[in-house]
Amino acid sequence: MPRAPRSVKQQMDVFSAELRERGFTWAEVAAEFKRRWRLNSRQGFREAHRLTQAKVCHLWNEYWPNEPLTTRKLGSWEAWPGPTGNEPPIAGLNRLARIYQCRTADLVDGEDHRDADEHNTPAVRSRGRALVAAGAAGSLGPEDIRGVLAALPTLPTGPVPFGSSRDEEYDALVRALAQWAATMKRRDVLALIRAAAAAAAASPLLARLNDDELDRLALIAAEPSRVDEATVDHIDAVLHHCMRQEDTLGPQSVLGTVLAQQHLVRSLIPAASTDEVRDRLLSLLANICRFTAWVLFNLNDFNGANHYYEQAKLAAHQADDDAMNSFVLANWSQLATWRGDPRQGVEHALGALAWGQRANSKLLVSYACDVGARAYSAVLRRSARSDRHKDHARCMTSLDQARHELGHAGEGDVGAKLLYFYGDGQYLSTRTKCLLDMDDARTAVEMAARSLARIDPAFVRNMAFSRLDLARGHLRLRSIDEACEQLGEAARLTCKNTSPRLARSVVEVRETLNPWARTRQVAALDEKLHTFQLIA
Predict the structure, then answer these.
(1) Average pLDDT over the chain, rounded to whole?
(2) For residues 316, 320, 324 and 330, what is the CA-based torsion angle, rounded to 10 degrees?
(3) Contact 513, 483 (CB under 8 A)
(4) Among residues 511, 499, 505, 332, which one has the least CA distance to residue 433?
(5) Residue 230 and residue 227: Cα distance in Å, rounded?
(6) 22-45 pLDDT per residue, tens
(7) Cα 513 to Cα 522: distance, rounded to the nearest angstrom
(8) What backbone phi and psi angles, to 5 degrees, belong to 387?
(9) Which of 328, 223, 219 is closest to 268 using CA atoms?
(10) Using an 8 Å Cβ cutoff, are 367 and 415 in contact?
(11) Contact between 466 and 451 (Cβ < 8 Å)
(12) In angstroms, rounded to a whole number, what is the distance separating the alpha carbons of residues 60 and 55?
């Protein structure tokens, strides 16, 4: 019989582990800790994660080494609003929210004056819930939906005729929906999507498949062992469209689909009809797991992303897919560097380089050098003065090799389909980041402007991050007007691509403008950020 926990610490350890095992979010775990042990919100989240104040400070100082946090300061924030506490600044709460994986508002115990709201009555609330329930049930009729769709903005390229290629139809639909969604309230968008999804579920979506394709899908549903190359092609096409959708609209729009795909492909592998089909399914599974990790990365779930990169690497090894191995390790390098472990980022990048060379893909080698340069530049930021020259040289060598390999990649490169997003614009964006780390702000600004001119606007998040780097460069040059303008543009793009990683990065760059918070330019910027719901 297991021994019952005796100390409060042991009770908390067991309680947190049990709640997480049952699927509770960190906000829900923290709420239980607050209730059971009478803690405030900042204490509740720290204890929910089972972190000491020293450990929180250690994580903080890894993320932001130039603005260190001490246990004394953290303790005073946790004691507020008591007599021994100090009110934590919004910038500090934003950073704690990153560590605790929650909203900044979750860390504040404020007063509740909702009773003074005339709409906060049982009758009005029940009416509102009834309207939401109606939308969730898909009660909007065909005329309602048709009326909204008729108001979709006209695309610059004109209408796409029925029967065009899937890529043309898909791209047109994404552009139209992105423009439309930007003009509507979030609640209205969600209600309409739920209604449209309910209508779509009953519509003959398979009508455009020919008889052979319909027969194949029916046979596979009845007998998975009939899976063949054409079936793998269908699943792969869905994955590709999910990637394009995530590029434009953000990670929330695709997570459910890729998790379902992962389950489907895992179920098909044991019943593969030939060894060739099995290897293709394993490579596809590796790519699905890699993309799942990428989606979680953009949702700020770094531990979850790390888990799926492990799964992706395992599947790629089982498939003997050198190109996929390189791609997985390159993405994994980005995660490690972003999390504050650039040395691990270097290791993954070197592995990606080796597998890219083995796959004989100049594009994959270029991309491995690209992410390696980011890792080296992050190492440079933390290097001792005696090592900075050596790390600087490694970063520049990696950048030069990335440019050389990218310039010599042919049309038939085996990495072209995997790296559909990678080109001159993305390379120049990486070079900008490295120049900023090397304190060459003037050249970085020039490089960022060139990057923005060459990135495909369909890659919304990439455009936003390039604007953030341009804002950082202008700020280093004390060009506050230009920094605010670029930051405002990046914030606007968060309405299209709703990546939490992007949104948090926008807020973090805004924090660097705190010394100019009382100026007219920053005040106007704050109004925009408030409108975009990025700050309170």
Answers:
(1) 82
(2) 80
(3) yes
(4) 505
(5) 8
(6) 888 899 999 999 988 889 999 999
(7) 7
(8) -100, -5
(9) 223
(10) yes
(11) yes
(12) 9
- 8-state DSSP, 514: G
* 142 prior amide bond cis, ω within 30: no
Task: Identify residue 436 by its one-letter amino acid code.
Answer: L
Judge residue 413's burial from the number of C-beta atoms within 10 Å of its C-beta, 0-12 exposed, 13-18 middle, 19 or more buried.
buried
Q: Tell me how far the alpha carbon of residue 417 is from its chain's centroid.
A: 21
One-letter amino acid for residue 343 of the chain: R
Q: Three-state secondary structure along 463-490?
A: HHHHHHHHHHHHHHCCCHHHHHHHHHHH
Alpha carbons 288 and 419: distance in angstroms, whole number: 14
CB contact burial 247-286 (16+ within 10 A = b; e otherwise): bbbbbebbbebbeebbeebeebbeebeeeebbbbbbbbbb
Average pLDDT over residues 405-421: 93
Closest to 426 in 3D by CA, of 394, 446, 452 = 452
- The CB density around residue 159, as the number of other CB atoms within 10 Å, is 10
Collapse the DSSP code of 516 into the 3-class scheme (helix H, G, I; strand E, B; otherwise coil) and give the result: helix
Structure tokens at 349: 């990048």
pTM, two decimals, is 0.63
Instruction: Look at residues 311, 286, 309, 313 and name the one whose alpha carbon lies nearest to residue 297.
Output: 309
**Which helix (DSSP H) or strand (DSSP E) does residue 424 occupy?**
helix 424-437
Q: Are 195 and 135 in contact (CB under 8 A)?
A: yes
Q: Please check whether residue 334 is in contact with residue 370, taking contact to mean a CB–CB distance below 8 angstroms.
A: no
pLDDT reported for residue 324: 97
Place of tokens 């960022």: 448
CA nearest to 295, candidates 249, 239, 255, 238: 255
The more confident residue out of 65 and 386 is: 65
Q: Report in angstroms the alpha-carbon separations of 180 from 58, 209, 376, 427, 436.
A: 44, 29, 41, 31, 36
| Cα gap 484→482, rounded to integer Å | 5
Question: Are the CB atoms for 407 and 366 separated by under 8 Å?
Answer: no
Q: At what angle do helices 255-268 and 275-298 cross, to 10 degrees?
A: 160
Residue 264: its pLDDT value, please?
87
Q: Which amino acid is at 130?
A: A
Please write the tens of the pLDDT for every residue from 440-499. 999 999 999 999 999 999 999 999 999 999 999 999 999 999 999 999 999 999 999 999
Q: What is the pLDDT of residue 23?
A: 81
Q: Closest Cα to residue 421, out of 314, 315, 291?
A: 291
pLDDT in tens, 278-305: 999 999 999 999 999 999 999 999 999 9
On the 0-12 / 13-18 / 19+ scale of CB atoms within 10 A, 161 is exposed
